Amino acid sequence: MASSFHNFVRADPTSEYPAEANRYHLYxxxxxxxxxxxxxxxxxxxxxxxxxxxxVHWKLRSEASWExxxxxxxxxxxxxxxxxxxREIYELAEPGYTGRVTVPVLFDKKTxxxxxxxxxxxxxxxGTEFNAFCETNEQRELDLYPEELRESIDTWNDFxxxxxxxxxYRCGFATSQEAYDTNIVKLFDALDKLEEHLSASRYLVxxxxxxxxxxxxVTLVRFDMVYVGHxxxxxxxxxxxxxxxxxxxxxxQMAGISETVDRFHIEHHYQESHLQINLHGIVAIGPELDxxxxxxxxxxxxxxx
Length: 305
Fold this sequence. Notes:
The chain has 305 residues and is mainly alpha-helical.
């Protein structure tokens, strides 16, 4: 997903955007997998009392983009400037802005500027630069991008991005049979490879939970809810993959993470917003999914528990 703002918050107090408590605000969508990367990191690193957040409405109505409709199923107002939608936030930060309006957005309350709107970079910042502000020692010690594993993490990030994270969209928004046929094969070849890999490895990079797992999880957790039907990714479901499904359940059951997965926002966003795919905006009842069933990954991989 193309982004326009790529500044970086750093732990170094002399940097242009130093990590500080109560300086930054995160705009997110609970429906969007890209934005959910950032919310996941916020929860996992215990930063909710350090970085404030706003949840936009699930329905993408127009080019004005994500709207603030407070009180509508976990949706918030804009608490900083009272704006009605995210385009107004972008125009506040950069007058005359005409580019794409996306979430997540990391906003600097001190300067009224957008620091960054690239989900992978926000995930990286929250995972590495705010350790001084984490709520617990365990959260502080959680290193989502350990130096000795970065090459492997980058490899998995690239693999998952090309054929899974973006792969579901390439299938869902295909405008020719040829495009769909090409991308659906790539998607399920990738899922088959991940299933095999996770049969012998607790996480993508061995026994260490990293940002690569977050980036994969946000797609997998949405797969059976919306991608199987809405995006025609229906060769198999995630529940049909024993290791992938257990892996999803384990991550979902991590402390605080279930709050980042809002089934109502997810199902209603995709099916009400993408009218070129779902003409009448009818929201399917969806499958029964028990994310709280025992996952067994801790007993299967006791050395990493």
